UniProtKB/TrEMBL annotation:
<dbReference type="GO" id="GO:0000272">
    <property type="term" value="P:polysaccharide catabolic process"/>
</dbReference>
<feature type="signal peptide">
    <location>
        <begin position="1"/>
        <end position="23"/>
    </location>
</feature>
<dbReference type="InterPro" id="IPR014756">
    <property type="entry name" value="Ig_E-set"/>
</dbReference>
<feature type="domain" description="Cellulase Ig-like">
    <location>
        <begin position="34"/>
        <end position="110"/>
    </location>
</feature>
<dbReference type="InterPro" id="IPR008928">
    <property type="entry name" value="6-hairpin_glycosidase_sf"/>
</dbReference>
<dbReference type="InterPro" id="IPR001701">
    <property type="entry name" value="Glyco_hydro_9"/>
</dbReference>
<feature type="domain" description="Glycoside hydrolase family 9">
    <location>
        <begin position="125"/>
        <end position="572"/>
    </location>
</feature>
<keyword id="KW-0624">Polysaccharide degradation</keyword>
<dbReference type="Pfam" id="PF00759">
    <property type="entry name" value="Glyco_hydro_9"/>
</dbReference>
<keyword id="KW-0378">Hydrolase</keyword>
<dbReference type="InterPro" id="IPR013783">
    <property type="entry name" value="Ig-like_fold"/>
</dbReference>
<keyword id="KW-0732">Signal</keyword>
<keyword id="KW-0119">Carbohydrate metabolism</keyword>
<dbReference type="InterPro" id="IPR004197">
    <property type="entry name" value="Cellulase_Ig-like"/>
</dbReference>
<dbReference type="InterPro" id="IPR012341">
    <property type="entry name" value="6hp_glycosidase-like_sf"/>
</dbReference>
<keyword id="KW-0326">Glycosidase</keyword>
<dbReference type="GO" id="GO:0008810">
    <property type="term" value="F:cellulase activity"/>
</dbReference>
Length: 597
C-alpha cells in the first residue's frame, strides 16, 4: 500500500480555503488513482476499472475480507484522458464472474471495495425510489427504521396557497389547494416542469420492466398512505399526479410552480418553514410535460386501476385541448416570482408539445395526434440531444418509435434520428477514458444527470433495436455515477464508500436525516454556478471532470433534484431485480454528518 497506509482524504480537500463550510470531515479513502464502481459490477457484463498510470503492467483482484488473490490480469496501454487530465490504464476483469466483495490492487495501491454479483444494484435501486417518498410534501413521515427522517406535515399551508397574479382565470390572492407532491430539490419549491418529467421517468422505467416493481418494495414509512393493490413505485407516482392535478387550471393549463417568496434558511424543516406560499406563472412547456406524463400514466395504470387510468386520460385530453387552442409558446413571469424559487424558464415549447402528442398517440392510437406530428415533421426528425426539462424531443421520438400502427415512413425517419444519436452516445463512451458519455460542453450544471440521461436513452434505444453495446454503455454511466470517475466520488447519496456527505438539501440540514438515493449534480466546469464553485474554479487550474465540491453551499454541483434522481431510478430499475428487503438491509451501515458544521 502507498506509504504503507491508506491515504486519508479530507472530504473538502483543496477547498477549505473557501471558508464556507467550516471544518472538513475525514473519511478513509482508497489509494489515489484507483477508479472503480464502488457499488459493484454485474455478472455477465463488462467489468472494468481505470487506474492512473504508475508504470505497472498488471493488476489483481483480491477478496476484500481475506486478501486472497482471485484474479490476475494485464493493464492496457496508458492513454491520456482529456476531461480528467489523467493518464489512464484499463483493468478489465469481465471474464471473472464469481459473486463476492473484492478490491483491485495495482502494485502497492488498493481500491475501494466493490461487489460482483447478479443483483448488485438492488439496494440503491430501492433507496433511489424511496427518496421520492421521503421528498413528499403535505403528509406526515416517520421513517424511524431506516433513515430516521421525521416530518410532521411539510408545508401544510399549501392547502391555502395564494395565486400571485391576475389573468382571465384567477385574481391575485385567490386561494388554491396545492398540497402534496414532491419537493423538487434542495429547496421546497414544487414545479410542474420537473414533476412532469420525473413522474414520466418513473413510469417509463416501470413500463420497460414491470416485473422489477412490486408491492411492499419501498417499505413505506409510518404516515404514508397508499393503495396496497398497486406496486409501491406506482403509488409514489400517483401521489405526484394527485398534486399535479391540483396545479391544473379549469381551462387545462397549469400553474408553473408553488413556493415561498424567499428562499428558506437551512435551519427550516418542511414543517417549520411557515412562510406564505404562492402560485406563480403559467408555462405551456410545463403544461405539455404534465400532459405527456398523464398520457403515459393512462397507459401504465390501465391494467391496474382502470378507473384511475380513465381519469388520467380525461385530464390529458383537457390539457391537449388547451394546447390546441393556445398555439403560441407562453412563459409568464411576474416581478418577484424568482426570489424564492428557480425559474425553469422554457420559452420554446415545441419539443414538449411533440412529446405530449407522441405519448397521446402511443396511448390512444388516435390519428389526430399523429397528424400533429406529421405537420411538425421537420422538428420531430431533428437530431435530438439528451432529454431534459427544457428539451424533450428525444422522449417524443422514443414514444413515437414505440407506437403501434404508426405511419411506416415517418416512424422509420424518427427511429433513424433517435438511433443515430444513440450510436453517437455509444461512440463518445468508447472514446472517453472513463467510459463516460459526457463531452466537454456537457460538464455543466447537472452533469451527472446529463450522463445518466444518455445512459437511459441507450436503454430506450435497446427497446427499439437490441444492441448489446447500448446496454453496456448504460452500465458504464452507472459505473461513472458510482465512483468510476476521476474524483473517486459516488454521486448518489448513500451509495458506495465515498458518496456525497454534504448535499445541498434543506431536509438533511434541518432534520439531520441523511436520505440515500439522491443524485447530485456533479462536476460543473462553467464558472458562475454558485459562489463556492466560482471561487474554486478561479483558485487554480481544475480539470473539467474534477470541477465538483462536496459542500452544502455549492448548489451548482452538489444539489439533487427529482428529475436528476429519476434518471438514476430508470437505469437502476432496469438492472435491479426486486428483493423482499427488510428495513435493516436497506439502512445505511455507516454514519454521515447530520448537519454541516
Amino acid at each position: 500500500m502507498q506509504s504503507k497506509k491508506r491515504l486519508c482524504r479530507m472530504v473538502l480537500a483543496g477547498i477549505a480555503m473557501l471558508g464556507t463550510c467550516g471544518a472538513a470531515s475525514l473519511t478513509e479513502a482508497a489509494d489515489a488513482g484507483m477508479h472503480v464502481d464502488q457499488v459493484g459490477y454485474l455478472t455477465g457484463h463488462e467489468k472494468a476499472a481505470m487506474v492512473t498510470d504508475s508504470g505497472e503492467t498488471s493488476f489483481k483482484l483480491v477478496d476484500a475480507k481475506t486478501d486472497k488473490v482471485v484474479y490476475k490480469g494485464s493493464l492496457s496501454a496508458a492513454k491520456a484522458d482529456a476531461m480528467s487530465e489523467e493518464t489512464l490504464q484499463r483493468a478489465d476483469f469481465t471474464s471473472f464472474n464469481t459473486p463476492g466483495t473484492y478490491k483491485l490492487k495495482v502494485g502497492n495501491r488498493e481500491s475501494y471495495p466493490f461487489a460482483i454479483g447478479d443483483n448488485v444494484y438492488a439496494v440503491p435501486a430501492v433507496q433511489t425510489l424511496r427518496s421520492f417518498t421521503l421528498s413528499r410534501s403535505g403528509t406526515p413521515i416517520n421513517d424511524k427504521d431506516i433513515t430516521g427522517l421525521k416530518v410532521k406535515n411539510g408545508h401544510a399551508q399549501d392547502k391555502q396557497a395564494k395565486v400571485y397574479f391576475t389573468d382571465k382565470l384567477n385574481k391575485k390572492g385567490d386561494i388554491v389547494d396545492v398540497s402534496g407532491g414532491w419537493y423538487d430539490a434542495g429547496d421546497y419549491g414544487k414545479y410542474t416542469t420537473t414533476a412532469g418529467i420525473a413522474a414520466a421517468e418513473l413510469l417509463l422505467a416501470y413500463e420497460a420492466h414491470p416485473d422489477h416493481f412490486t408491492k411492499g418494495q419501498l417499505l413505506f414509512p409510518e404516515g404514508i398512505t397508499y393503495d396496497k393493490n398497486l406496486p409501491d413505485a406506482l403509488n409514489e407516482v400517483k401521489y405526484e399526479f394527485d398534486f399535479m392535478k391540483k396545479m391544473m387550471r379549469k381551462d387545462g393549463s397549469t400553474f408553473h410552480k408553488v413556493s415561498g417568496a424567499q428562499w428558506p434558511g437551512f435551519d427550516k424543516s418542511p414543517d417549520s418553514d411557515t412562510q406564505e406560499r404562492f402560485l406563480y406563472g403559467n408555462c405551456t412547456a410545463s403544461t405539455a410535460m404534465y400532459g405527456a406524463s398523464l398520457a403515459i400514466g393512462a397507459r401504465v395504470y390501465r391494467g391496474l386501476d382502470a378507473a384511475y387510468a380513465k381519469q388520467l386520460q380525461k385530464d390529458a385530453d383537457k390539457v391537449w385541448n388547451y394546447l390546441s387552442k393556445n398555439k403560441k409558446s407562453l412563459y409568464r413571469v411576474d416581478e418577484g416570482q424568482e426570489s424564492g424559487s428557480g425559474p425553469y424558464d422554457d420559452k420554446n415549447d415545441i419539443q414538449e408539445r411533440l412529446w405530449m402528442a407522441a405519448e397521446m398517440f402511443r396511448t390512444t392510437g388516435d390519428k389526430k395526434y399523429e397528424k400533429y406530428l406529421r405537420e411538425n415533421k421537420a422538428e420531430l426528425v431533428k437530431a435530438p440531444g439528451f432529454f431534459t426539462w427544457d428539451n424533450t424531443l428525444a422522449l417524443a421520438q422514443f414514444a413515437y418509435a414505440m407506437s403501434k400502427n404508426a405511419d411506416a415512413s415517418l416512424q422509420s425517419d424518427v427511429k433513424k434520428a433517435y438511433l443515430d444519436y444513440a450510436d453517437f452516445i455509444a461512440d463518445k463512451i468508447s472514446k472517453d477514458g472513463f467510459g463516460c458519455a459526457l463531452s466537454k460542453d456537457e460538464y455543466t450544471w447537472a452533469s451527472t444527470k446529463n450522463a445518466m440521461t444518455q445512459g437511459d436513452m441507450l436503454l430506450m434505444a435497446y427497446q427499439i433495436e437490441p444492441k448489446q453495446a447500448y446496454v453496456e454503455g448504460a452500465l458504464s454511466q452507472i459505473h461513472y455515477m458510482f465512483g468510476r470517475n476521476s474524483l473517486d466520488k459516488s454521486f448518489l447519496t448513500g451509495a458506495g464508500a465515498n458518496p456525497p456527505e454534504h448535499p445541498h438539501n434543506r431536509i438533511h440540514e434541518s432534520t439531520g436525516a441523511y436520505v440515500p438515493g439522491l443524485l447530485v449534480g456533479g462536476p460543473n466546469a462553467v464558472s458562475g454556478g454558485d459562489p463556492d464553485q466560482t471561487a474554486y474554479l478561479a483558485s487554480k487550474h481544475v480539470p473539467t471532470a474534477k470541477s465538483y465540491l462536496d459542500v452544502l453551499t455549492s448548489w451548482s454541483t452538489n444539489e439533487y433534484a427529482i428529475d436528476y434522481t429519476g434518471t438514476a431510478a430508470y437505469a437502476l430499475s432496469w438492472f435491479a431485480k426486486p428483493v423482499e428487503f427488510t428495513a435493516s438491509q436497506i439502512k445505511l451501515t455507516r454514519a454521515f454528518p447530520s448537519v454541516t458544521k
